[in-house]
Amino acid sequence: MTRTGAWILLFILAVVGGVWWLASRSGPVTEVTAEPASAKSASAAPARLPPSPYAPSRASGLIIPVNGVWQAGLTDTWGDARGDGTREHHAIDIMAPKGTAVVAAAAGTVEKIFESQNGGHTVYVRRTDPAWVDYYAHLDAYAPNLKEGQKLGQGDLIGAVGSTGDASEEAPHLHYEIKRMGPGDKWWQGTEVNPYPLLAR
Ligand SMILES: [Zn+2]
Rounded distance, CA 192 to CA 36, Å? Predict the structure, then answer.
């Protein structure tokens, strides 16, 4: 091998070595910064998702109070037997993965945050028209800083879908109830109305 040839070989080895060193150094660094960031936002997202983007029902003006659920994804569960057949279901159960955002179906004021044996973590919202109360149950968690007396706009975050109370751990869902309130009725009173036709059309 000539002297020039040896220098060229050395030069090539140096370039290849340098590129390898740079790649091995910068490769993992970009991965480390990129991957946990996206993984973190994905796992932290459910309770803080933006309001449901779907248009309000033309029948009622309500929006479906579970983020990502379409009208076609609803099932009418009004009148189903509950509590070993001793009770009738006067609400709609909206199935969704645990942690999915629960949002206000209508604007109103948080009237009561209540720990219920059957309902688990629950929230009662008195609508702007005080003749109506919306009841949200089996929540996995409340929205951060949610408190009684707080005003909510339609689509504002209430909490996350869960299985607290007497709901099955295998079938997390929002139990959503609409109550027609008589004059002076308190949060635990009122008469339930089937939410299904008011959400599905
Ligand atoms: Zn239910």
Answer: 45
* Cα dist from 187 to 118, 130, 132, 183, whole Å: 16, 11, 10, 12
pTM (2 d.p.): 0.74
Q: Ligand 1 center to residue 48 CA distance, Å? A: 23
- For residue 162, report the distance from its CA to the centre of ligand 1, in Å: 12
d(CA 85, CA 126): 30
**How far is the C-alpha of 198 from the C-alpha of 176, rounded, in Å?**
12
27-73 residue pLDDT tens: 444 333 333 333 333 333 344 455 555 678 888 999 999 999 988 88
Q: How many CB atoms lie within 10 A of CB 137?
A: 26
Going from the Cα of 196 to the center of ligand 1, the distance in angstroms, rounded, reads: 12
Residue 133: count other Cβ atoms within 10 Å of its Cβ.
Answer: 24
